[in-house]
Amino acid sequence: FRMVSDLQGAMERSEFQLHYQPKLDLQSGEVLGLEALFRWQHESRGNVPPSRVIPVAEESGLIIPLGEWVLEAACAQLARWRSQFNRPALTVAVNVSLRQLSSGALVDTVRHFLASACLPSDALEIEITETCAASDPEQAARILRVLRNMGVRISLDDFGTGYASLSYLRQLPIDTVKLDRSFISNVHKNARDRAIVAATAQIARQFNINVVAEGIEDPRQIAPLLELGIQCGQGFYFSKPLPAEKIPELLD
Ligand code: G
Ligand code: G
Ligand code: NA
Ligand code: MN
């Protein structure tokens, strides 16, 4: 399986797809936004999970064109949903690895695809994922500041499990932290997990940052999260990531 050369042709063969997972208001159940997740349906190997694709794409540099494809597709799709369902505040979140942030081209790419889709900058959220430590954290911080000044929202994915969660919170311009699902799965049963959620919520309040709970699979997790001041969540209990054509039933 020659992943790099197969990846190079995959875009022309239309083997890439995005699935979308909603982010909801835990109190009202309203869908606030959709996270775009990359999928690759290989012509002979079937579905190749992003956990395998992304690291190879990062290593080979193909993460740059792949990331551009994701941004274009996600922005175009959001623009269609906003007008089709009259939901002008709906947002889309795109995962961006620290490697992608070391390319200065990201800012122009984002500006270009927002403009092509006629979307305001605050329609887009960039989720910083940490598959590897940042090679140049200062450069990453600079790029994020430019994006944030444009109005793009920045969130920190899988918060609490990365190499550098707390120092990123200090250094990067963050709107939202997404608390990793490992802290959420037993939040209704485990006082230590609740303590971590509570402490994160407290830091976030002082930084004026939102918190999203990831990986909600059980309705019993919702009450303790609301009690601790977490208003937004995501997870299989609400919806798995779905192909675009299944999203209208969530928005209707
Ligand atoms: O959807 P799944 O659970 O297989 O995703 C696995 C990982 O791949 C997640 O950590 C997710 O952030 C990452 N991922 C999914 N889509 C993208 C993408 O478009 N770009 C980047 N950089 N990472 C992605
Ligand atoms: O790292 P990131 O948070 O971007 O990863 C997103 C992936 O997490 C998605 O591909 C999705 O399949 C997975 N995911 C989303 N919600 C849940 C959940 O409730 N439980 C589990 N086990 N995985 C989830
Ligand atoms: Na994510
Ligand atoms: Mn995550």
From TrEMBL:
Residues 1-252 form the EAL domain. Signal peptide: none annotated. Keywords: Membrane, Transmembrane, Transmembrane helix. This is Uncharacterized protein. The lineage of its organism: Bacteria, Pseudomonadati, Pseudomonadota, Gammaproteobacteria, Cellvibrionales. The chain holds residues 265 to 516 of 516 of the full protein.
